[in-house]
């Protein structure tokens, strides 16, 4: 990656601000740090764009599976370890259906994919992809199942067949969904490559081992195919970890033949569902771009989603909850109002203790840019005027019939300012310092 000064030499140097930065130098420095996209500059010359696109491209190509709002992006990574910078595109998770399954089995997997979604930290945790496998070899059955899966899932689709004729029938049915074609092998490489070019779909490349798959990607790249994923056909967990790590290390050393996201199929490595989840968690951490599962069940799926969330959360940015009012235990207009920051850990602890108290109440979450209560107060982001403004903005101030608001004990100092901003008819109550004391505090308030 060129330095910021080297990038600046290729920019128009007009300081127009159209890129969102005040100067071309600021934009160049952000581009060098990976914090900006080259396309943000509308005035760069075609020659400079070509030069910078090549040098600024991530060592692992970003590949998009799907179209419109449901598309899934994988790859685009730039580091071996998350703490070195961050990971960008989380591992895609998919469920496998086959044209040899019964309609009930297929429908069950598709339904669980749609139903098993979890709200956490203001995000929806879910699997995004359906992988459709041709086990029968019947191109009409495969195309019909692909169409069914594409209609049911707004996310990405993976089409799995090594027969170009069977694959072609399915692509004719759902090419507009831009599915991932799985897979090109040494035997069908030219035909599968032609299908990828014709339908403008990404192509997975499969071979036995890293060296073999690298040989195929070089030939396909020469054919003009850019969007590829690779599967080194790892037969077991040990080889899987070795292959994934080897691919990532080589890609970061600018070995272009393996500079693509990987696909892994723990569904093919064991018949034990919980062992499959264990293997999948390994692939999420090291370093698969896409993981295909035999099925998704809550007891294994939820922990896998949480693990993925933790790994693909930027360690340089705090996890935040959305600002607003959160009703807990079905409150009414007479229920108490507690205030906290939008640092996710704080929110979950406080809301959990409030829920455990079984006292109907509201929780007002103030945007403190992800800082905890005391740290936010020290930074001037948890102040009486800010709390009062948010109460007015959310409408909770006008709805409450008992005009009492409870602030965390550690910021008792803001009570006077908050009372002044709310008005003389409001009472500001200093609550517990520790969240563990909230249930007793609320119960005593409710009984008084």
List the topology elements:
Blueprint: H1 4-8, H2 24-32, H3 46-56, E1 63-65, E2 72-74, E3 92-98, H4 103-115, E4 118-120, E5 123-125, E6 129-133, H5 139-152, E7 156-160, H6 164-174, E8 180-184, H7 189-199, E9 203-206, H8 210-222, E10 228-231, H9 237-252, E11 263-264, H10 273-285, E12 290-293, H11 298-311, E13 324-328, E14 337-341, H12 344-357, E15 361-366, H13 373-378, H14 384-394, H15 396-399, E16 404-407, H16 415-422, E17 427-430, H17 438-447
Helix pairs in contact: 5-6, 6-7, 10-11, 12-17, 14-16
Task: List the keywords.
single chain, 448 residues, alpha/beta, 3-methyladenine DNA Glycosylase II, Chain A, domain 3, TIM Barrel, Rossmann fold, 3 domains, eight-stranded parallel beta sheet, five-stranded mixed beta sheet, 17 helices, 17 strands, 41% helix, 16% strand
Give the strand content.
15-25%
Helix content: 40-55%
Strand order of the largest sheet: 10-9-8-7-6-3-12-11
Count of discrete structural domains = 3
Computed over alpha carbons, the radius of gyration is 26 Å
Helix/strand class: alpha/beta
Distance between the termini: 66 Å
What's the shape? globular
CATH hierarchy class name of the largest domain: Alpha Beta
The protein's oligomeric status is: single chain
Count of separate DSSP helical elements:
17
CATH superfamily of the largest domain: Dihydropteroate synthase-like
Low-confidence stretches: none
Named at the architecture level, the CATH assignment of the largest domain is Alpha-Beta Barrel
Q: Taking all residues together, what is the mean pLDDT?
A: 93
User: CATH topology of the largest domain, which one?
Assistant: TIM Barrel
Number of strands: 17
Summarize the main sheet: 8 strands, parallel
